[in-house]
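Reading is simple: each integer encodes one residue's backbone shape. An example follows:

___
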Amino acid sequence: MIWLTLLLLFSLVATTWIGFRFLNHYRLITGTPTSLIRSAHQGYVEVIGHIQDGEGDILRAPLSNMECVWYRFKVEDLHEKKTGPVNSGESQQWFQVSDSSGTCLVDPNGARVKPDYTRTWHGNTLNPRDETYHHTNTTSRSLLTKELSGPRYRYTESLLMRHEKVYLLGQFRSVGGGRHVESVKDLTKEVITEWKANYTALLERFDENGDNKIDMKEWDAVQKAAAVEANERRRSQINSPSMHVMIAPNNPAQPYLISTLNEETLARRYGLYSLGCLVAITAEIYGLLYLWY
């Protein structure tokens, strides 16, 4: 009875924590207003747009070879007794999302990605892309054995693809466009530090008397040249175009969500999850009362 009580107490605490987490997700999804990318404030925001190209080269899903901007996959061995996938992975490449006002870069690292496209299928090779080759090198006897024993592997792949409508909830930041520009003094120090890292080049440029050291007069010339370079860098930063990014929030109470499910469906799911936790909590409390009373 003591062990069963401890198990129920642990389960009650865990279910309560998970339930409040789901409820917090539901509250943030339904309570955070949708912002346009161009006018979104700096901080935790909700954005709805359409997926554009990835930041780098074309991304292809490792199992299906389909073009995408993000993927998650796993391969499970159905004949192996141990649990867990034999192969799995998730892409970390940034991609772009645009709405009627602008475009932002999205970092999927740390996000709870909930795609609408998820496919599960079965096969007899570790990588389903090798399945054609595998079948062309099998005998009728081995094929009969496979039919009787069933497929060995189960593949699951989730994708985000170009032009899909996407829901984002995360930390929004804008850089460039004159934002967060350092002072000339700080930039001058930065330039001098860079030049000191290559002291040989510094001597070749500023050692006028050839004594292999920078004296006071030459050091003054270094500072003036660094100030000129700092002003050019600052001017370039001020004139640089604005770039908007969506990343994971630092606050663990603020979920980072990327989903091609619409906002209503996403909110309804988290609402049902929290309701399910409430039912489980009620059952666990009833079990504790039944054990001790």
Summary: The first helix runs from residue 2 to 31. The chain has two domains: 32-176+242-261, 184-239.
